[in-house]
Amino acid sequence: RNHTATHLLHEALREVLGSHVEQKGSLVSPDNLRFDFAHFQKVSNEELRMVEQKVNAAIRANIPLDEHRHTPIAEAKAMGAMALFGEKYGEEVRVIRFGSSAELCGGTHVQATGEIGAFRIVAESSIAAGIRRIEAITGEGADDQYFSMQDELRNIRALFNNSPQLTAAIEKLVSEHQEAQKKLEALMAERTLALKQSLLQKARTNNGIKLVVFEGEATPDAIKQIAFQLRGEQPEGLAFIAGSLDNGKPLLTVAFSDDLVAKGLNAGQLVREAAKAIQGGGGGQPHFATAGGKHVSGLKEAVNQLVASIG
Ligand SMILES: [Zn+2]
User: Fold this and answer.
1) Which domains can be identified in the chain, with CATH numbers?
2) d(CA 243, CA 232)
3) What is the pLDDT of residues 139-194, one digit of tens each?
4) Ligand 1 centroid, distance to 109 Cα (angstroms)
5) From ligand 1's centre to the CA of 94, what distance in Å?
6) For residues 59 and 118, is the Cβ–Cβ distance under 8 A?
7) How far is the CA of 40 from the centre of ligand 1 (A)?
8) CA of 144 to the centre of ligand 1 (A)
9) How far, in Å, from the CA of 5 to the mean position of ligand 1?
């Protein structure tokens, strides 16, 4: 059955894409078929649909098999039969015709195209330079594919309260989601800013070093943002120390302005040392470093140790 379907597909492809379409290989199984052919660009959805329509029209026309055995090769060519490039043929060949399709072929075919039942293209792809592959299903396989698509569409529609305008409903959801995402990001940025400002108010300055300390619940991302914003705003004499908790996980963060790094302070070294109090480890660069751990009740001690080491 699918052998015949490849003949109809070949013919339809030549009608839709042009006579340069030449079969480069095919694989036929009871459930599906694969057809490789020469063509230099992607076959568009519109072209694929035209091919599908032509093949299905040929199936519905129930064209009978017209088989010519022991035909001299010259006569076969005169009949317009397509030969496979690179294939060796004897003096006498078999010509298989279904309406306008004529091929030299030794395979088994249906008695009439109606036996194919239905034809659906399921994939079109490139397999090598200038070679495209079409995968298709026929008969009951086409029904099964239709049923599974129908089930999926029903399920999606149910998720959208059986909206009659499914595409519009999905577009609305996507844009609402993007809006919500933007608002959430703006809120988080506001919260981070407010936290940073309250920390700055509590900051003390000692020996020309402004020490900003945070202890409490915060996401690693918010702490990192605060560290880098402070470094940007206070290019000199800034030390930032944070002992934060996120979902019960303790995190130490240390950041210095570049002038303090030049004077010998090293965030990576200090954080590694202090992380022992939270049974953790980490590191980073001299100007920014973090360490995670698992001993929450050691967080206070770790922060005190860091504060003391800066003086
Ligand atoms: Zn054939």
Assistant:
1) 2-153 (3.30.980.10), 195-310 (3.10.310.40)
2) 21
3) 999 999 999 999 999 999 999 999 889 999 999 999 999 999 999 999 999 999 99
4) 6
5) 10
6) yes
7) 25
8) 25
9) 9
Alpha carbon of 180 to ligand 1 centroid (Å): 58
CA–CA distances in Å: residue 114 to residues 31, 59, 93 = 16, 5, 26
36 band by pLDDT with thresholds 50, 70 and 90: very high
Identify the CA nearest to 206 among candidates 262, 268, 266, 260.
Answer: 260
- Whole-number pLDDT of residue 113: 97
- CB distance 51 to 12 below 8 Å: yes
- Angstrom distance (rounded) from CA 5 to CA 294: 65
What separation in Å is there between the alpha carbon of 47 and the centre of ligand 1?
24
Give me ligand 1 centre to Cα 251, in Å.
Answer: 70
